[in-house]
From TrEMBL:
Native organism: Labedella endophytica
Documented EC number(s): 1.3.1.12
InterPro entries named among the record's database cross-references: 6-PGluconate_DH-like_C_sf, ACT-like_dom_sf, ACT_dom, NAD(P)-bd_dom_sf, PDH_C, PDH_N, Preph/Arog_dehydrog, Prephen_DH
Protein's name in the database: Prephenate dehydrogenase
GO molecular function, one term: NAD+ binding
Segments forming domain Prephenate/arogenate dehydrogenase: 11-288
Swiss-Prot/TrEMBL catalytic activity: prephenate + NAD(+) = 3-(4-hydroxyphenyl)pyruvate + CO2 + NADH
Record-linked SUPFAM superfamilies: 6-phosphogluconate dehydrogenase C-terminal domain-like, ACT-like, NAD(P)-binding Rossmann-fold domains
Length: 364
């Protein structure tokens, strides 16, 4: 995966849990020549991950330098405790999306946590399991590392090396900071997507047929596993409830304004919420973590083989870097819309060059 820099990790790593994250870690480190040992409570899941090339089965003489625990939140503390005991020379980390609850549980049990460092890669897909694993899953994604004052420098370095070898960007946070942050940027969005998608269950077919990219974008993550999310949300209930309370308050403001749209201040209330959303979305990191927004160009693409590839090729030929991309295609239509993001300073040149090559620009 990384052809320009040598791998930082070497020897053996052990991955417990051969689902999406575990298998993706195995695939990535194996590309760097690292011996990946896989373990999973499910024999079939383990065999599948091995068949996909994510690693090998464990042996009695294994001696990993680092153990990565990739199991559901309700058993993560149990597995961390077991791995610390089984491999007394290894550093143990985990990739659970909640950090404070397992940390407190391990403290309550009196487990020596000097060799444990909680971490969390902000990466994933709508579909889980080894079949969905990808070696580039973590590329460019934040990888939160939760250290404390007792964390040995060499142990911290191992977890940082793991993140860097996978192409991720290490970030240090306390468990409290992490859980509050993911409550806002990950856990509440899941609830919002799922509750909005729930409204489609009894919606008339005539409404569903009108679905555009806005709704698809908003409910994209609503296909996630309910069993897993029950564990995640109940483990991080406090921070999630704080965000939900603020969200409900804002929704109530809009609902009340719409009930009496002609009342003094109603239209301003609606406008203020929408405008605040503009301000919030402008803060989202762009490509390479830059806080800059991209200019949009919507290109009409004929629904024939090779057209999208031709668009990408010609953008490269005119020296335009594609910063973002969204595709929209209405059922029955013979064209699609490719909304491409470019740097604002090259937007005009990109439009002129594309039109000169025969592309139809729907909007800029």
């Amino acid at each position: 995966m990384n052809e320009t820099k040598a791998a930082r990790l070497s020897g053996q790593i052990r991955v417990v849990g051969a689902g999406l994250l575990g298998a993706s870690i195995g695939l990535a480190v194996r590309e760097n020549g690292v011996d990946a040992i896989l373990a999973d409570a499910s024999p079939s899941q383990l065999r599948l991950a091995i068949d996909y090339g994510a690693g090998r089965a464990e042996r009695d003489d294994d001696d990993p330098s680092i153990v990565i625990v990739c199991v559901p939140p309700d058993v993560v503390a149990d597995v961390i405790e077991a791995e610390l005991a089984r491999y007394p020379r290894a550093v143990v980390t985990d990739v659970a999306s909640v950090k404070l609850a397992p940390f407190h549980e391990l403290q309550r049990r009196g487990v020596d946590l000097v060799r444990y460092i909680g971490s969390h890669p902000m990466a994933g897909r709508e579909r889980g399991g080894a079949i969905s694993a990808r070696a580039d899953l973590f590329l460019g994604r934040p990888w939160v590392i939760c250290r404390d004052h007792e964390t040995p420098r060499d142990a911290l370095a191992l977890v940082e090396d793991l993140a860097l070898d996978l192409g991720a960007v290490p970030l240090e946070m306390t468990p409290e900071e992490h859980d509050a942050s993911v409550g806002l940027v990950s856990h509440v969005p899941q609830i919002v997507a799922s509750t909005l998608a729930k409204q489609l269950v009894d919606a008339p077919d005539s409404a569903v047929r009108l679905t555009g990219q806005g709704l698809r974008d908003t409910v994209r993550i609503a296909s996630s596993q309910p069993e897993l999310w029950v564990q995640i949300l109940t483990s991080n209930g406090g921070p999630v409830v704080e965000v939900l309370d603020r969200l409900v308050a804002d929704l109530s403001i809009v609902a009340d304004a719409l009930r009496s749209p002609d009342a003094t201040g109603s239209r301003r209330e609606i406008a203020d919420v929408i405008a605040a959303g503009n301000t919030g979305v402008a803060r989202l990191p762009g490509k390479h973590g830059q806080d800059r927004r991209f200019a949009q160009i919507v290109v009409m693409v004929d629904d024939t083989p090779g057209q999208l590839g031709r668009l990408f090729t010609e953008l490269g030929e005119i020296g335009i870097n594609l910063e973002d991309l969204r595709l929209e295609h209405s059922p029955g239509a013979q064209i699609g819309l490719a909304e491409i993001g470019v740097l604002p300073e090259v937007q005009r040149r990109a439009v002129d060059e594309l039109e000169a090559r025969g592309w139809r620009i729907a909007s800029v």
